Each structure stands twice: as C-alpha cells, then as structure tokens.
Amino acid sequence: MKRILSTALLATALPFAANSFAADYTIDTKGAHAAINFSVSHLGYGWVVGRFNEFEGTFSYDPEKPDESSVEVTIDTSSIDSNHAERDKHLRGGDFLDVDKHAEATFKSTSFKVSDDKKATLVGDLTLHGVTKPVTIDVAISGMGKDPWGSERAGFSGTTSINLTDYGIKNILGPVSETIDLNLYIEGVKKK
Amino acid sequence: MALLMVSLFAVGLYMTDLGYYDSLYHVLPWWHKSFGLLVMGLLLFRIIWKISNTKPAALPTHKPWEVTLATWTHRALYVLIFLIGISGYLISTAKGKGIEFFDWFEVPAFQELSADATDLVGEIHFYLAWSLILLAAAHAAAALKHHFIDRDDTLKHMTFRKQR
C-alpha cells in the first residue's frame, strides 16, 4: 500500500519537476554564503568598508532561459556593521539610514540580460531610506551545480554604485564620500 | 565633580552635533569618554568615603522634610551618575572594544550589545543626563535659597569652606 501511494505521488510530482526547470533558489544567508558589502571613500584618502549582516532573499535562474531570471532581497538596515560601535550607531541614526523609520531596504529585479556565459546585467528597483530608484548591477555568474550535501546551488557576484543623496540621505561626509560602492555576493540553494 | 559633570553634559550635547570635518570631531568624544570614566572612579571613591566616614550633620535649623528630601536627592544623584556612566560605557563597548582612559590604559569591554539595545542605551544615556542636570540644578537652587533667603550655613556645609 505504502509503495503504491509513493509511486502515485511520484507520478504526480514528476511533470512538475520537469516543468520547473527554471529553478527557485533561497539565498543561503543561514550558511553565510552571501554578503552585502559596501565601501565608501574616507576623506578621499582611504576607505571605510562595511556590510549588512541580516538579509534574506530568493532568486529564480535557469541557464537555458536566463532572461526570465529574477531576484528579490530584503535587508535589515539596523544590521549595518562597519566594525565600529559609535560609527554604526551614527549610521543607524537620523543622519543616515534612520532605521527606526526605514527598518528595511529591498531590491526587486526588473530585468536580467546575459552578455556572455560569465557576465550579465541586472536591473532592479532598490528601496532605501524610503526612496525607490532603479539600479543597474554588473553581475558575474560564478557557477552552479550539485553540492556535497544533496542540494543544488548557484552563485553570483555583483557590483554597483549608488549616491547617498539620490535616496534622500543628506551627505554630511563631503563630495568624496557621495558614492557608495556595493559588492554583492549571492549563493542560493535550490528549493526542493 | 559637579563641575566635571556639567562640562561632560555640555560637551556631550555639543559633540554629537559636530560636522564630520570639524577639527574637534574625534577629540571631544575622546575627552568625554576619559572624563566620564574619571567621574565613575570618583563616584566609587565618594561612596566608599560616605560609607566609611560620618555624615556631616544637618543644620538644626533644617526642617525634617528638608533633611529627608536632601538625603533622597543625594541618593538619586548618585544613582543617576552611576547609570549614566554605565550606559555611556555600554554604547562605546557595544562592539567588544575597550575605551581608552586618557593615554594611560584601556578599560576593556565585557560584553557586546545588539544594534537595537545600543540605540536604546543611547536614548537612556541622553535622558538620564538631562534628568541629572535638572535634578542637580534644583539641588543647587535649594542650596542657594538656604544661603541667600534663609541665610544659613547650608552652602558652606556643601563646599570646602570651614564652619565658623
């Protein structure tokens, strides 16, 4: 009886499995195989590098139909970490992220265009500090395949730059620190 | 100690509004933290002193309710100073790094705090500092009232001046 049931289940599940080749992935924040890092010029001489420790997201990617790919990420803005207690407190405050009012930043993709098998351009809406603007991210397709623990994974990295003032954040750091470079590392585990 | 704390309060308000390119941007918080730690040390010394020495007797002209009020005000001032010191320490050590005590040594961090907790402690630090300053001002006003209106020796008791 058990065997009949499981065969029946398998039979109904199979067509879906074949169809959903455009796989959905959960970004592996649990295993910390993803990172949202930023760097900002300090005085025009050096750099401040930081990260957002808490975020989550999903993406959909099919190497056969890459144009149908999409990604959504939600970032907990209060998790900003530049490895400096007082600076992080300042960054969370009203001068910068204002995390009491804007607890989340989100990114939702609108298009994904592959230029060759290792490179792509991702366009999407970034909502930060309550302001939504389109951003273009240069993507490097890192790789995909089976992992040693019974799942499948796909990985990407991306770079882009945003301007503080575009998102209604007053730039009190001076013109050299207006542009924030973002370095993004995403690895997803295929949903089963 | 009172003068130190009024300075800390003023500098605390001023330094948190400084622009990034202000030459005092790094210096003032550094002094604020060092002197804040110094006040905590002095507070400890003062409480030990208070316990191990006899308390100066209240003037016989003081009414019982005035003595009670003064006693509780003193206690409230000590508690406020202590809590302000602790909350300040918690803000600066939230990432597990210690605080420099002048150029002398570093007071280590014993804990780390989450972002939300650090921001809450920051609010507490701010409002407790205001409470302390207002309570101290009321206390000082009461002392001045004794000096100029009641014309007794209360203020002289509070300062270093010897009694007649």
Automatic annotation (TrEMBL), chain A:
<dbReference type="InterPro" id="IPR036761">
    <property type="entry name" value="TTHA0802/YceI-like_sf"/>
</dbReference>
<dbReference type="InterPro" id="IPR007372">
    <property type="entry name" value="Lipid/polyisoprenoid-bd_YceI"/>
</dbReference>
<dbReference type="Pfam" id="PF04264">
    <property type="entry name" value="YceI"/>
</dbReference>
<feature type="domain" description="Lipid/polyisoprenoid-binding YceI-like">
    <location>
        <begin position="24"/>
        <end position="189"/>
    </location>
</feature>
<feature type="signal peptide">
    <location>
        <begin position="1"/>
        <end position="22"/>
    </location>
</feature>
<protein>
    <submittedName>
        <fullName>YceI family protein</fullName>
    </submittedName>
</protein>
<keyword id="KW-0732">Signal</keyword>
